[in-house]
Each structure stands twice: as C-alpha cells, then as structure tokens.
Design goal:
Layout lengths: L5 E4 L6 E5 L4 H13 L2 E6 L5 H11 L4 E4 L4 E5 L12 E3 L4 H12 L5 E5 L2 H5 L3 H9 L3 E5 L2 E7 L3 E2 L2 E3 L5 H11 L2 E2 L2 E4 L7 H8 L4 E4 L2 E4 L10 E3 L4 H13 L4 E8 L6 H8 L3 E6 L7 E7 L7 E2 L11 H10 L2 E5 L12 H11 L3 E5 L2 E6 L6 E4 L4 H13 L4 E4 L11 H10 L1
Parallel strand pairs: 2-17, 3-16, 6-7, 10-12, 11-13, 20-21, 24-25
Antiparallel strand pairs: 1-25, 3-5, 4-5, 7-9, 8-9, 13-15, 14-15, 17-19, 18-19, 21-23, 22-23
The structure holds shikimate-3-phosphate.
Shikimate-3-phosphate binds next to helix 1 and helix 6.
Length: about 425
C-alpha cells in the first residue's frame, strides 16, 4: 500500500468557527441540466465543482452545450433542448455519478436522432440500471444494456407518457422518468410510495414547466417551448454540512456555524432525527423560496440512540454511514432498518460502514437492510478502507477527530466527488 493513498486524521479537542459549504451536489446537477435545456446564456453561482458535477458538464458538452468554469461559477451557453446535437463518437462517460447517468438517460431516451452509449467508472458500472430501463422501455424507449448494468446504449425515440409506481424510493429514478416525460406524448405520472428529494420538480416549477404533485403522484406535461436562459445560485449542501454537524456534536466545547445551507425538508431528516436524540442545533431560516435556505448553529451535545426505518430512509439516505458513526457515540443501541438501497451506492455502504465501525472497535450487527450499533464507545484508531466511496472517506475522517488514536483513511481522494475542499477545511478548523 502506498502511503500517498492514506490520509492520517489526528484526534481533536473541539471545533469552533464558521464554515462556508459547497453548493449542493443534487441541485448542481439539476441546475447544469436545466441550463442545457434552456436556450441561450445561463449563469450558475455557487456550483458544486466536485468530480460528479464535472461529469455532468462533460456529458452535456457532448450535446453541443458550452461551459465556462470559474472558481464557483459557471457560464453556460446552450442551443436548447430542441437543438442538442449528436456527438461524433456517440459516447458519454458519466464517471462515478449515478445522478448524471440516470437523469440524462431520461432526457436522451426521448430525443430521436441521438444515439449514445453511456459508460462510467468501475463503481458506476456495477450499480443497477434496470430500475430506469424498465420504466423508460414502458414509455417506448430503445435501450440496450449489459444485463441491466453499463454500458447502456440509448437510441432516442418518440415516447409516450405512462403512470409508473416506483418499486424503490429513488429520486434519481423519479427524476429520470419526469425528464423523459418532458418529451413524451401525453402526461407522465410518477407515484412515489415514500417522498424522496424533490429538486427536479422544484426546478421545473422555477422554470414554469407544468409539474404538479397530488399526494404521492407527480405529473409532468410535454415541454413544447424553449426555456430561457437564467441565473441561479445553488444553496449549500446539507449532505456535506452533515460531517461538520457530526464533528461539532461529538467533540467537547464545540460550536460551529454553517452558512446558507439548503433547508429543503426532503434533505434535512438527519437534523430532525439528531434533534430528537438530544442534539442542540439552531436553525435560522433566511427565506421561504421554493428551495429554502438558512444558517444552522451546532453545539456539542450528549446524544441518545435512535431508530431509522424505511419510512425515513429516503430523507437521510446519504447520511446513514455518518449516522452509524454517531450511533457509536450515542447512549444505547441504535437500529437502522429498511436501508437496503445503501448496498447499491458508490460502495455497498452497509458493508463498508460495518467494516469501518468494527475496525474502530464498535460492536455492530449487520443485517441485509441495515445494522444495530451499540454505543457509547470510545473509538480506537486504525486503518479504514473507504473503498473509493466519498461518503465513507469523509465519515472515517470525522471518526479520526473523535477517536482516541489517529485514523488512517485509505482511498481518501474520492472526497473530490462531492467535496474537493473537505480536507483543506478540516485542516483549517483543526488549527483554530
Ligand atoms: C440523488 C438521489 C439519491 C442520493 C444521491 C443523489 C439525486 O439517490 O443517494 O446521492 O441527486 O437525485 P436515490 O436515487 O437513491 O434517491
């Protein structure tokens, strides 16, 4: 093992101060996609410039959309959805990004004249795509895949609207179908048994695309006119904020202010859960826009154990590895169930979280759809393999701050997927 691949995180006494968050990853993907749908010039501020958003940019460039990337701003010029062009090599590489792949698949399926083969890295190539292939085929799409995995070839066709009940709660699958609905004949309905993040619908509303929600059913009409270019500022990422929230809660004498974070209710279930367990977190809403934003202040807190079930999993899906770590410091046995979807993320996050916690001396029982974690324990240090998964790498790094001894994180470079500035910020707050 090369030492270069290991990041050593030393224990810390407390963290204090203020952190500016990166732009939300999910909203950054969607803002880029809408800028490509729109005709003319758009400007997106506070974009998440992680590797996943860069994958979305690279894919959209292939359709004839141009991007000028500043530090956290991007200027976009697009011929518009009705004038996307076929790339000569017919290839689109989505890197590590499931959101890029699933959202774009929906848009490309309904565009006759486009013929594209979508690929990705080793992790994305193992993730399940049948979940988007099935509904898209029902809409009339022409898709070939390698046994439900990448590479996927999509030959654009005229689609028809359907009513689809999601078999798994997934915002990516929901968005894929809604995006396909934009070019389908007739209305498209997606029924979601449990609500998932609603950024695609929100952004459609912002651009006056007729999208409606009636209880569990979301419907969208065919897009018949050009969307005009726009300016948009992406709210701070609550999933990136979660790491600092966890550090402040678990370290003594800590207080951290996180500015301009998304307060979208479909994204902050982890804050609601932690508050129920005794976390002192003040929420200071700023405005009541379609995508609400505000500051939060987090203080050191004693926590009690929690239960997570399938009803709340979609609202905190990306925070579960971190919550599993927090459970190790909470009083009692925490139970996570109904979270089998974690097995299909950038790594099998049930297995990688369990391995991480056991390495750090925590008693964990693994289940097919979750785990039980016994707390509170003083974490020992150790070598944690993040298996190329950004959320495991960041969780292991926070573990290093609260452990008795240093934690070495292997494969830490994956943090670039969502949070390239994570380690510089960690270094800054460790010194202050
Ligand atoms: C995302 C949805 C979630 C989440 C992922 C981003 C999105 O996946 O895990 O990181 O931007 O739509 P699901 O499709 O499981 O909801």
């Amino acid at each position: 093992m090369k030492t270069k691949q290991v990041k050593i995180i030393q224990p810390l006494e407390s963290i204090r101060g203020q952190i500016t968050l990166p732009g939300d990853k999910s909203m950054s993907h969607r803002a880029l996609i809408f800028a490509a749908i729109a005709r003319g010039n758009s400007k997106i501020r506070h974009l998440n410039i992680g590797a996943d958003a860069l994958s979305t940019i690279a894919c959209l460039q292939k359709l004839g959309v141009s991007f000028q990337l500043g530090k956290f701003t991007v200027d976009v010029n697009s011929p518009g959805f009705f004038h996307w062009t076929q790339p000569p090599d017919g290839q689109m590489n989505c890197g590590n990004s499931g959101t890029t792949l699933r959202l774009l698949a929906g848009l490309l399926a309904g565009k006759p004249g486009l013929d594209l083969t979508l690929t990705g890295d080793a992790s994305l190539s193992q993730r399940p795509m049948q979940r988007i292939i099935d509904p898209l085929k029902k809409m009339g799409a022409n898709i070939e895949s390698h046994e439900g995995c990448l590479p996927i070839r999509i030959q654009g066709r005229n689609l028809k609207g359907i009513h689809y009940v999601l078999p798994v709660a997934s915002a990516q699958v929901k968005s894929c179908i809604l995006f396909a609905g934009l070019s389908a004949q007739g209305k498209t309905y997606v029924e979601e048994p449990i609500a998932t993040r609603d950024h695609s619908e929100n952004m459609m509303k912002i651009f006056h695309i007729p999208v409606f929600r009636n209880k569990k059913i979301i419907s969208v009409h065919t897009l018949r006119r050009n969307v005009q270019g726009f300016e948009y500022s992406v709210p701070g990422d609550p999933s990136s904020a979660a790491y600092w929230v966890a550090a402040a809660l678990m370290l003594n004498k800590s207080r951290i202010l996180l500015r301009k974070m998304s307060l979208n209710p479909t994204r902050i279930a982890y804050i609601r859960l932690l508050k129920k367990c005794g976390a002192r977190i003040d929420i200071l809403p700023e405005d009541k826009k379609i995508e609400p934003v505000g500051d939060i202040v987090v203080y050191s807190s004693g926590l009690k154990a929690f239960n997570i079930n399938n009803r709340i999993v979609p609202g905190l899906i990306d925070e579960i590895p971190l919550l599993a770590l927090i459970a190790a410091r909470a009083n009692g046995i925490s139970r996570i169930r109904g979270a089998k979807e974690l097995r299909y993320k950038e790594s099998d996050r049930i297995s990688t979280s369990v391995e991480m916690l056991r390495t750090l001396g925590v008693e964990v029982t693994e289940y097919e759809d979750g785990m039980d974690i016994k707390g509170p324990v003083v974490l020992q240090g150790g070598l944690v393999n993040a298996y190329g998964d950004h959320r495991i790498a960041m969780t292991a790094s926070i573990a290093g701050l609260i452990a008795r001894d240093a934690v070495q994180v292997q494969d830490w470079k994956s943090v670039d997927i969502s949070y390239p500035n994570f380690y510089p910020i960690l270094e800054r707050i460790s010194k202050s």
